């Protein structure tokens, strides 16, 4: 069991202890109409998705799906080197923040690893990392919902003299998401002035701030001019709300995992703290409170659900039966990535989180481990793809934690883009998944091994250059022979 697995089990164990301590103080909330609608929509999507899957998948398509599932796995050498570089950056940044006296609010910060890499569903290459910087909020906050349960205005329940007061608006209560994010940018920029990457051939660069992004994004590049990005890291400041306060009302029911993981696990998950990241609502003519909005984040819970995914609690452990759940998600992520590369303008609103949401809904419906047998990978993936297509066709994709929020609503996903997505998914299924048939080759993350021995690996650029030179030499020789033959004929003719 690695450290990440221990973290997941410890989080659930701590939540269970808190639940036992408060047992009997409150009754569990009843199923809301929104949750009932969500369950009905899930069932309809599952039934329609099942119709997409034929009783038997063709041998050719079976072969393509299995082959691509293997190709998505990250190389061990790339994973090791990337982890070493990112971990060194993270550890030194944390030391800097804790010793930085000009901003005491960040001194108690800690990191929470999230995202596809730490969920072990990252595909192709370990080139993207998401890290949440946990910032401890006061014990009591007022959370005012601004939309369907994802965006909030956060106010202090009472005035405070703690360091967080530096990020309060003029009214003395509302926490400014812009101030928190701007301070994060300033601190990271200050840190980069003195930090050196252990591998002297590389450096970290800070990307430009994006309006609707809650992250400080950095790129690892080579020291040469115009070097390409090798690794991208998103640092997201996240306000941690104490678990004693509970989740906001719109998400208080928790995720629909009763049939899948059990009511007990659901209660344990609801006992975990919740997090808010500084993300602004989309749209024009926003109010001042909307410009200072926070979005609730469930990254820590999603990691638990994906890593502890079996309803029998032993799936994919060392000596237990292996399933194909993660492989299906990775294949769907690869297909979404391929669609976005092929249609960048038409599918700009599509992202991997749409695929993850469909995946979580599908897990809660197809909850038994036997439904995800490893040998049934092709059929299981086609079922997941059918569910994605069904959600897109109906225009209904409820957020897994906030069912009142539809990720395929016109405000979040334009109707024209949604219709295009349906057509693109239908084409992929009809043509036998061509975007999975011809995966783009992924070059090594580094041109040399971590030990510095370059004799065992040749860079992709050099190999391409060498091939080009050889082909040019061959063509040049053909031209010389042809010219010589023409000259000989001409001489013989005039003689």
Structure description:
A hairpin with a 5-residue loop joins strand 3 (141-145) and strand 4. With 495 residues, the protein is of the alpha+beta class. Mean pLDDT is 79; it is low at 1-9, 18-30, 49-55, 438-444 and 446-476. Helix content is 44%, strand content 12%. Helix 9 runs antiparallel to helix 10 and helix 9 crosses helix 11 (377-394). Strands 1, 2, 3, 4, 5, 6, 7, 8 and 9 form a 9-stranded mixed β-sheet that branches.
Topology (SSEs and partners):
Elements lengths: L2 H19 L11 H20 L6 H13 L4 H24 L10 E5 L13 E9 L4 E5 L5 E6 L20 H16 L9 E5 L9 E7 L6 E13 L21 H8 L3 E4 L10 H4 L2 E4 L1 H9 L17 H18 L9 H14 L11 H18 L20 H16 L3 H4 L22 H35 L1
Parallel strand pairs: 2-7
Antiparallel strand pairs: 1-2, 3-4, 4-9, 5-6, 6-7, 7-8, 8-9
Helix pairs in contact: 1-6, 2-11, 3-11, 9-10, 9-11, 10-11, 11-12
Keyword list:
44% helix; alpha+beta; 9-stranded mixed beta sheet; 495 residues; 14 helices
Proportion in β-strands: 5-15%
Helix content: 40-55%
- Counting DSSP E segments of at least 2 residues, the number of strands comes to 9
Low-confidence stretches: 1-9, 18-30, 49-55, 438-444, 446-476
User: Shape from CA axes?
Assistant: globular
